[in-house]
Amino acid sequence: MSVAEALVVEDEGAALFRAIRAELLDEYRQDHDWPWIIGYSGGKDSTLVTHLVIEMLLSIPPSQRSRPVHIVANDTLVESPLVVQHIVESMEEIGNAANAFGLPIVTKITRPSPDQSFWVNLIGRGYPSPNRSFRWCTDRMKILPTSRYIKSQADEAGQVVLLLGVRRSESATRAASVGRYDNGERLNKHNDLVGCMVFRPIVELHTDDVWEFLALNEPPWGGSHLKLIGLYRSASGGECPVVTSKDDAPSCGTTSSRFGCWTCTVVEKDRSLEGFVESGYSEFTPLLDFRDWLVSIRNEKERRQARRRDGRITITNGGTFVPGPFTLQTRAEILEKLRRLEHATGQSLITEEEIDLIHQIWSGEIADHGKAKTFSVREIVKDRKHAT
Ligand code: SF4
């Protein structure tokens, strides 16, 4: 019985989970050797998928565990501190259990290349803090690192199956993006990644089904899901989903993605950090203040250069002048404040490699400064696309 049929016949959680387990097993036993890749965000949905897959692997004889399963998480390098800690710890627990049980599991945490990190773009290149119309971060910090890994596996194996913990009932946005794949097939081609098929085993589950399962079942890698449940309680909300395409990206940096980057200036208020602070993690208050400060300085005219990084001046079709990146003074001020924040909180918030790259970019800009650039009228950009 398919998951959809189980829904029609009886609206019962147990039947649904039975159908999901059967579908996972059936897909794993298909006559090809495409590796599985689980997009793991550390949130409830991808944790459930990981739980069910590991349970399935344990239920079959070792000789039948021929298909490798990669569990891939992404760390933007500016994740909420408690969330990244949870991801790292749970991945380690899963990896240890997989070794102990002899399961064909590979755990991998992807990260943006240092040259494309939040701080190198914001402080180095002076990109204004991301907002809804200039959200430069998701692609660089989330989509690219994970996609690179998936592509490398697809190139090696010819094809991969990406298991996503997306659910139709999660949100209206999610329902719309899930709907794109509703063609009656279990596996669907990924919109952007060649050689990648998408499998959504828990798409029909409701939020209550997920929580109930996690509360009642201990993870096969040991411990309990109570830590995760506590994390949600503290953050008082949703999660930042695994993002592997631009279609998934609208849910990144919204009020429904409260496990996002602690630096996120796309959300009006960082609900997850606020939730953690309200739950007693007062050590995050300075981070919250720093993020709010980044939001507040974004549109201060004197903090922005007149020209874009390539020397052009931007005027929209409507005649509005669009300022360029943060001035070098402001970038230096942000870096100094960030270092002071590290000192005050005892947390490492930026790497030495990022600081070196920032200084290299600044040096390059200072060297370029003064080399007069002359643009024709045609070259003066009149493009709404770059309006911030
Ligand atoms: S959570 Fe915010 S800062 Fe992080 S990638 Fe998404 S939109 Fe950008």
UniProtKB/TrEMBL annotation:
It comes from Paracoccus rhizosphaerae. This is DNA phosphorothioation system sulfurtransferase DndC. PANTHER family: PHOSPHOADENOSINE PHOSPHOSULFATE REDUCTASE, SULFATE ADENYLYLTRANSFERASE SUBUNIT 2. Gene3D superfamilies: HUPs. The gene is dndC. InterPro entries: PAPS_reduct_dom, Rossmann-like_a/b/a_fold, Sulfate_adenylyltrnsfr_sub2, SulphurTrfase_DndC. Residues 38-265 form the Phosphoadenosine phosphosulphate reductase domain. Coiled coil: none annotated. Pfam families: PAPS_reduct.
